[in-house]
Amino acid sequence: MDIISFREDLISWFEREKRDLPWREDKDPYKIWVSEIMLQQTRVDTVIPYFTRFMKEFPTIDSLANADEEKVLKAWEGLGYYSRVRNLQVAVREVQEKYNGEVPNTPNEISALKGVGPYTAGAILSIAYGKPEPAVDGNVMRVLSRILVIWEDIAKAASRKIFEEAVRKLISEQNPSYFNQALMELGALICTPTSPSCLLCPVRDHCRGFETGVQTELPIKSKKKKQRPVELAAVVLTDHRNKLLIRKRPNTGLLANLWEFSNTEVNLKFIDAKTQMIDSFKENYQVAISVNQRLGKIEHVFSHLIWNIHVFSGRLEGKIKETSKLKLVSVEEIKEYAMPVSHQKIFKQYIESLRTEEKNYD
Question: Beta partners for 230?
């Protein structure tokens, strides 16, 4: 491969065709950092409005470092993988305290920050600071596996080192920012997972995969483990004032510190979901509840789990003591609490059921 020609073709294509994205407006390392964390396992089109709102609310490292976690989680609500934003806030607090609010510009320092892996570190260092560091994600591995004909399994962590070394040999010392972004952009727009648009590719003449006709066989990627299905029953409970009961999830683990409606895992082989929900609630809170007919069912998919949620509405039959993790809130107040997407859908089903009741009553 003629490396110099490859770089020139790739970068000149990027200069012509790059998408107009809000985090590309300047080289602010904080903005680039936030965008890269948001873009992990999330589509660009989904991220754009979240990024714009997030930066409006937390425009600087200091504003995010000093923000209440509840407010931060609310701003992230709907993006999923909430550990990303919790780690981000921990890391910016360290930047505020240790580096006087300046994102560090060395591989060792930036990689030591919580939640900053090799890809994020490389992206910030190359895009914001112009350092010739590799930023290797799934997109980049797919592109390079085809261009260089690398038959390593990109699902294996050990393979990353091979691709990082490849980038170190290819990267432009003069413009590492555009080089890395161009590889990412190529993977997003041209060298896509299925049916790559080889005839439109700006570096087709440098691609060994295209030359030998194996581009559609690459990359090699072993399948992930099958997701485990979990049956859940959830109930939207109201008290005598029609306030809704919500509870806070534990501060570690899946969806940590988010608010949700009462729910429990159920086994539908023996007893119906409604009965198990009633028994579970009484056991946990020593308060009886009445549960109405099912409102519907929601499927929510995680990388390792599939939640099948049977949704009910119900009524508290006694008083329940509010705590910092258990609250009774109005329909308007609930909008202030960060909830996972699955429970936002539950709330939507509940509101729709109320509207249907009103219609039937009229």
Answer: 307
Whether 235 is covered by a domain: the verdict is yes
Q: Is 196's pLDDT higher than 70?
A: yes
**Is 275 strand, coil or helix?**
helix
Q: Tell me the three state secondary structure of residue 231.
A: strand
At which of 182, 217, 252 does a domain end?
Answer: 217
CA torsion angle 327 328 329 335 (round to 10)? 40
Say yes or no to pLDDT of 151 above 80: yes
Amino acid identity, position 240: H
H or E element in which residue 264 lies:
strand 262-265
Determine how many CB atoms are found less than 10 A away from the CB of residue 73.
22
Residues 240 and 143 grouped into a single domain: no
- Position of tokens 């952009």? 185
Residues 116-128 have pLDDT tens digits of 999 999 999 999 9
- The token pair at 276 is 């198990």
Does residue 222 belong to any structural domain of this protein?
Answer: no
Domain boundary pick from 189, 217, 245: 217
d(CA 32, CA 26): 9
Same domain, 193 and 254: no
| Judgement on whether residues 200 and 323 belong to the same structural domain of the protein | no
Per DSSP, the three-state class of 246 is strand
Q: How many domains does the chain have?
A: 2
Q: How far is C-alpha 284 from the geometric centre of its chain's CA atoms?
A: 32
In this structure, the answer to whether residues 71 and 189 fall within a common structural domain is: yes
Pair (136, 52) in one structural domain: yes
Q: Does the annotation mark 94 as catalytic?
A: no
Residues 65 and 215 sit within 8 Å (Cβ to Cβ) = no
Q: Retrieve residue 37's tokens.
A: 């964390």
Residue 72 shares a structural domain with residue 207: yes
- Both 172 and 77 in a single domain? yes
- pLDDT digits 0-9 by tens, 298-310: 999 998 999 999 9
Q: Is the per-residue pLDDT at 277 higher than 80?
A: yes
Q: Which of 15, 36, 283, 336 is catalytic?
A: 36
- φ, ψ of residue 63 in degrees (nearest 5): -65, -35
Q: Which residue has the tokens 């806030």?
A: 89
**Which CA distances in Å does 330 have to 24, 118, 183, 243, 273?**
40, 44, 49, 5, 26
**Partners of 326 in the β-ladder:** 247, 323
